[in-house]
Amino acid sequence: MSESISESYKGPFSLLRMLWGNLVSRPLRCALSILAIAIQVVLVLMIVGLTSGILAEWGKRVEGVGADLLVQPPNSSIFFSFSSAVMPEPLGDQIAKLPAVDEAAPTLVVSDPKTLIIIYAIDYKRFNALSQGFIFRDGRPFQAPDECLADDIIAQTRHVKVGDTVNLINRTFTITGIVAHGKGARYFIPLKTAQDVLGAENHISMVFVRSKNDTETARAQILQLNPQNRVRSMAEYVSLMNSSNLPELKPFIKTMVTLGIVISFLVVLMNMHTMILERTREIGILKALGFTRLDVIKMLLAETAILTILGSLLGIGITFLAEAILKQTNPGLAILITTRWVFASIGLALVGASLGASVPAFRASTVDPVDALAYE
Questions:
Q1: To which H or E segment does residue 206 belong?
Q2: Ramachandran angles phi, psi of 170, nearest 5°
Q3: Cα–Cα distance between 88 and 75 in angstroms, integer?
Q4: What are the DSSP calls for 184-197, one per residue?
Q5: Which of 60, 102, 335, 369 sits a CA distance of 20 to 30 A from 241?
Q6: Rounded Cα–Cα distance for residues 58 and 334 (Å)
Q7: Cβ atoms of residues 270 and 359 within 8 Å
Q8: pTM score, two decimals?
């Protein structure tokens, strides 16, 4: 008879009702578990989304300059803010004269020390000629040494307009134009001005090059001028802009992911341990009705899986809500949340929660029915 009763409890619908009943009977503890798992999912998605988004957005901005090739000094970083002004400016003129080159724009890359915003110091006419040119939302090109351009995103974020002044590289500039974003930097200043301020006379960080529809020939000719320089195609550069190609970011992302797993492991471990103590008598009754050790383990792991899925869905919802709010309040902030990482965050939550529930579940399965029924 106990076997028939046990089988009735093991039916899919009966088991589901029992699992749900066990969860709703302890709403506060379940809610805290769901919230903790949601925090883990948000932590993983936001950390990965921010790093991936910043890299992807930076790559698109550089690609939007309109060049085919990028000439940098030897051992230069893919992040232009780390590039030094070590290339001679006349190299840009030499590259421009090559048969396979259509236009070359020498550029000095500056990172503002106060805001860490990337600034391009450019020869306006040559930089503008790389593509269809700047698209002006308002104003005109800079003409004087103390004038600059700002893109529309930084203008919206910093609430600046044509005629306002900004402090860049410890010098005051007047904004003469607001341009559409996607040309590499947020601010553009005259090349000669930046060279004077930085003490880098006749030196640049890199050269943007547009070829005459033959990128490889142009690359070969540029390397003949100085084989030690690094010449990358834009397609090659953009492909490098992901976290897997940046070894410095890998330990950081792994640490954040591991921290998320530890959070769900500890929360579920404490929750399941306390819950099993409270349900010792209930588990004894189930075993007396015919539940095996495996049945008890499966029941408790199933409850954990339900909590984890609910927590993951809540975390994904919070993440997308936070992304929308951040993009609204800070348009310059790039967040890239991919489907791959959404499912990965759920999988990581399930792994951490399952590990946390496994030890208490195994201990519960070894409870002696006689001792459990006598438990108060």
A1: strand 206-211
A2: 60, 35
A3: 16
A4: S-SEEEEHHHHHHH
A5: 102
A6: 9
A7: no
A8: 0.70
SS (H, E, C) 220-289: HHHHHHCCCCEEEEHHHHHHHCCHHHCCCHHHHHHHHHHHHHHHHHHHHHHHHHHHHHHCHHHHHHHHHC
Token pair 């994904």 is found at 316
Structure tokens given for 63: 């690609």
The candidate with the shortest Cα–Cα distance to 48, out of 253, 330, 300, 283, is 253
Question: 118-122 and 187-190 as β-strands: parallel, antiparallel, unpaired?
Answer: parallel
CA 132, CA 365: separation in Å to the nearest integer? 71
Q: CA 306, 312, 316: angle at the middle one, nearest 5?
A: 150
**Residues 77, 72: Cα–Cα separation, whole Å:** 9
Domain ranges of the chain: 2-57+248-373, 74-228
What are the mean pLDDT values of the chain's consecutive 10-residue runs (376 residues total)? 45 57 70 84 86 76 83 71 71 90 90 81 91 88 94 89 91 93 89 89 89 88 88 79 61 75 74 69 72 78 84 93 85 80 87 79 70 55
Helix or strand (DSSP H, E) at 113: none
